[in-house]
Amino acid sequence: MKKIDISTKINNIKLSSCIMNASGALCRTEKELSNLLDSSSGALVTKSCTTNLRDGNKKPRYFEWNIGSINSMGLPNLGIDFYIDFLKKKKINKPIFLSISGFSLKENYFLIKKANLISNISALEINLSCPNIVNKREIFGYNFFYVSKFLKNVFKFNKKPLGIKLPPYFNEIHIKNMASIINRYPIGFITCVNSIPNGLYVNSYTESVVISPNNGFGGIGGKIIKPFALSNVSKFFSFLRKDISIIGCGGISSGQDVFDYILCGASAVQVGTQFIKEGISIFDRLKKELKEFLKKKNYFSIKHFLGNLKKIC
Ligand code: RRO
User: Fold this and answer.
1) Is position 203 within any domain?
2) Is 16 an active-site residue?
3) 275 in any annotated domain
4) Which of 30, 216, 220, 299 could share a disulfide with 199, CB 3.0–4.6 Å?
5) Does ligand 1 come within 6 angstroms of the Cβ of 195?
């Protein structure tokens, strides 16, 4: 029987499977990172890191219901040195994406310079879309001036494959403009999308919000956001240079979801909410389901349908 190949490439980095974790989902502590190394995920993405350790926002700060999740974690992480030390001491068996989320341009440059010195890091995913820093900072991905300035400077010193994680956009012109900024630089990939910011989930019985920070408002993830994430992937795919890979993220819980993302132009996908719900065995399940779906459709490689979404004329 012909082998079904779900390997992929992100900016010339080879992944044995196109399915990985989303930053933030069970990738913060030593135990969680070790589990990911031991799993069948195609790559490991770390929790976004800052210069110093952060405890994050007050709990409860994560809640999920049948079709979605809401979070206001507040960037809890163990600080960049923890992630670097972890990666230095471990035997690395898959590509490592270090997620970085500095509070300023200056802090992002500092963290990127540090990460450039570490050979075990395959690529940097710069998080320009954290929605949950209460009263402190804007979502950088919505400030086109910030993104232009960041990209203009970062490639003066950065030597690693570098991508940016973007917030969801809801106007085509925003995606067009962001793509034209990105197209000017030697960026390796984009990840879209981060959670949809400023959502609110209400418990009708207790007549209350469900998370504590920011009066209950937070980033929405899970199944409910998939159509918005797919539209961002599809539109970026049509506007970006073809050598820039897209990693799709948002609402993946089945092999068929992975298929839909690739059809819209993603070269790989990240799983967040469903990974938190289901645990590390999700990577085996999604791989199996994707392969079964491809077999039914008579596809033997993701290359054969990547970006081939049909229009109705
Ligand atoms: O830690 C968080 O609150 C958080 C981050 Br950094 C992010 O990028 N996206 C998100 O939904 N939560």
Assistant:
1) no
2) no
3) yes
4) 220
5) yes
